[in-house]
Protein backbone atom coordinates (compact mmCIF):
# COMPACT_ATOMS: atom_id res chain seq x y z
CA UNK A 1 0.00 0.00 0.00
CA UNK A 2 1.14 3.53 -0.67
CA UNK A 3 2.03 5.66 2.35
CA UNK A 4 -0.33 8.57 2.96
CA UNK A 5 2.30 11.14 1.93
CA UNK A 6 2.78 9.34 -1.40
CA UNK A 7 -0.85 9.63 -2.55
CA UNK A 8 -2.44 12.29 -4.73
CA UNK A 9 -5.74 12.97 -3.00
CA UNK A 10 -7.21 16.29 -4.06
CA UNK A 11 -8.57 17.52 -7.35
CA UNK A 12 -6.01 20.30 -7.78
CA UNK A 13 -3.10 17.85 -7.59
CA UNK A 14 -4.77 15.47 -10.05
CA UNK A 15 -5.55 18.31 -12.46
CA UNK A 16 -2.02 19.70 -12.35
CA UNK A 17 -0.54 16.25 -12.97
CA UNK A 18 -2.93 15.53 -15.84
CA UNK A 19 -1.58 18.64 -17.59
CA UNK A 20 1.94 17.16 -17.52
CA UNK A 21 3.53 14.68 -19.93
CA UNK A 22 1.30 11.84 -21.12
CA UNK A 23 2.23 8.42 -22.46
CA UNK A 24 0.15 5.33 -23.19
CA UNK A 25 1.29 1.74 -23.46
CA UNK A 26 -0.97 -1.29 -23.56
CA UNK A 27 -3.54 -1.08 -20.78
CA UNK A 28 -2.42 2.12 -19.03
CA UNK A 29 -2.00 5.83 -19.65
CA UNK A 30 0.52 7.63 -17.45
CA UNK A 31 0.43 11.37 -16.77
CA UNK A 32 3.72 12.58 -15.29
CA UNK A 33 4.69 15.97 -13.87
CA UNK A 34 8.10 16.80 -12.45
CA UNK A 35 7.78 19.19 -9.52
CA UNK A 36 10.16 21.29 -7.50
CA UNK A 37 11.04 18.53 -5.01
CA UNK A 38 9.11 20.13 -2.14
CA UNK A 39 7.49 16.75 -1.47
CA UNK A 40 8.32 13.15 -2.19
CA UNK A 41 7.10 11.26 -5.24
CA UNK A 42 3.31 10.85 -5.27
CA UNK A 43 0.85 8.79 -7.30
CA UNK A 44 -2.87 8.73 -8.02
CA UNK A 45 -5.09 6.31 -9.93
CA UNK A 46 -8.08 6.60 -12.23
CA UNK A 47 -10.04 3.43 -12.94
CA UNK A 48 -13.37 4.20 -14.61
CA UNK A 49 -16.49 2.05 -14.92
CA UNK A 50 -15.44 1.26 -18.49
CA UNK A 51 -12.85 -1.11 -16.98
CA UNK A 52 -15.55 -3.27 -15.43
CA UNK A 53 -17.70 -3.77 -12.37
CA UNK A 54 -16.66 -2.79 -8.85
CA UNK A 55 -14.82 -6.03 -8.16
CA UNK A 56 -12.80 -5.78 -11.38
CA UNK A 57 -12.03 -2.08 -10.89
CA UNK A 58 -10.82 -2.66 -7.35
CA UNK A 59 -8.61 -5.57 -8.46
CA UNK A 60 -7.04 -3.44 -11.18
CA UNK A 61 -6.55 -0.55 -8.75
CA UNK A 62 -4.91 -2.83 -6.14
CA UNK A 63 -2.53 -4.22 -8.75
CA UNK A 64 -1.58 -0.77 -10.01
CA UNK A 65 -1.13 0.53 -6.46
CA UNK A 66 1.20 -2.36 -5.64
CA UNK A 67 3.21 -1.90 -8.85
CA UNK A 68 3.63 1.84 -8.23
CA UNK A 69 4.58 1.28 -4.56
CA UNK A 70 7.46 -0.94 -5.73
CA UNK A 71 8.72 1.76 -8.12
CA UNK A 72 8.08 4.86 -6.00
CA UNK A 73 11.41 4.93 -4.08
CA UNK A 74 13.34 5.14 -7.37
CA UNK A 75 11.46 8.26 -8.54
CA UNK A 76 12.94 11.68 -7.93
CA UNK A 77 11.30 13.82 -5.20
CA UNK A 78 8.59 16.08 -6.55
CA UNK A 79 7.43 13.61 -9.22
CA UNK A 80 3.66 13.31 -9.48
CA UNK A 81 2.14 10.47 -11.52
CA UNK A 82 -1.47 9.66 -12.38
CA UNK A 83 -2.02 6.17 -13.75
CA UNK A 84 -5.22 5.78 -15.75
CA UNK A 85 -6.37 2.23 -16.46
CA UNK A 86 -7.89 1.45 -19.84
CA UNK A 87 -10.56 -1.28 -20.27
CA UNK A 88 -7.85 -3.70 -21.43
CA UNK A 89 -6.36 -3.59 -17.89
CA UNK A 90 -9.11 -5.93 -16.65
CA UNK A 91 -7.81 -8.70 -18.92
CA UNK A 92 -4.10 -8.18 -18.20
CA UNK A 93 -2.15 -10.30 -15.76
CA UNK A 94 0.15 -8.81 -13.15
CA UNK A 95 3.32 -9.19 -15.23
CA UNK A 96 1.68 -7.71 -18.34
CA UNK A 97 0.35 -4.76 -16.34
CA UNK A 98 3.84 -4.23 -14.87
CA UNK A 99 5.39 -4.21 -18.35
CA UNK A 100 2.77 -1.73 -19.61
CA UNK A 101 3.34 0.55 -16.62
CA UNK A 102 7.14 0.48 -16.96
CA UNK A 103 6.97 1.20 -20.69
CA UNK A 104 4.53 4.09 -20.22
CA UNK A 105 6.61 5.66 -17.45
CA UNK A 106 9.79 5.35 -19.50
CA UNK A 107 8.08 6.98 -22.47
CA UNK A 108 6.70 9.82 -20.35
CA UNK A 109 10.17 10.54 -18.90
CA UNK A 110 11.82 10.54 -22.32
CA UNK A 111 12.58 14.05 -23.63
CA UNK A 112 10.33 15.23 -26.42
CA UNK A 113 11.77 15.21 -29.90
CA UNK A 114 11.32 18.35 -31.92
CA UNK A 115 9.47 18.08 -35.18
CA UNK A 116 11.33 19.61 -38.00
UniProtKB/TrEMBL annotation:
Entry EC number(s): 3.1.26.5
GO terms of molecular function: 3'-tRNA processing endoribonuclease activity; ribonuclease P activity; tRNA binding
Keyword RNA-binding (UniProt): yes
Domain of life: Bacteria
Name of the featured protein: Ribonuclease P protein component
GO cellular component, one term: ribonuclease P complex
Subunit structure of this chain's protein: Consists of a catalytic RNA component (M1 or rnpB) and a protein subunit.
Source species: Actinorhabdospora filicis
Catalytic activity, reaction form: Endonucleolytic cleavage of RNA, removing 5'-extranucleotides from tRNA precursor
Function in brief: RNaseP catalyzes the removal of the 5'-leader sequence from pre-tRNA to produce the mature 5'-terminus. It can also cleave other RNA substrates such as 4.5S RNA. The protein component plays an auxiliary but essential role in vivo by binding to the 5'-leader sequence and broadening the substrate specificity of the ribozyme.
GO biological process: tRNA 5'-leader removal
Family membership: Belongs to the RnpA family.
Record lineage: Bacteria, Bacillati, Actinomycetota, Actinomycetes, Micromonosporales
Keyword vocabulary terms for this entry: Endonuclease, Hydrolase, Nuclease, RNA-binding, tRNA processing
Short name of one Pfam family: Ribonuclease_P
Amino acid sequence: MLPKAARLRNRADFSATMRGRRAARGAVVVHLKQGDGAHGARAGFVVSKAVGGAVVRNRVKRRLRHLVAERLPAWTPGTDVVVRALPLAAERGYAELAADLDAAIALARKPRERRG
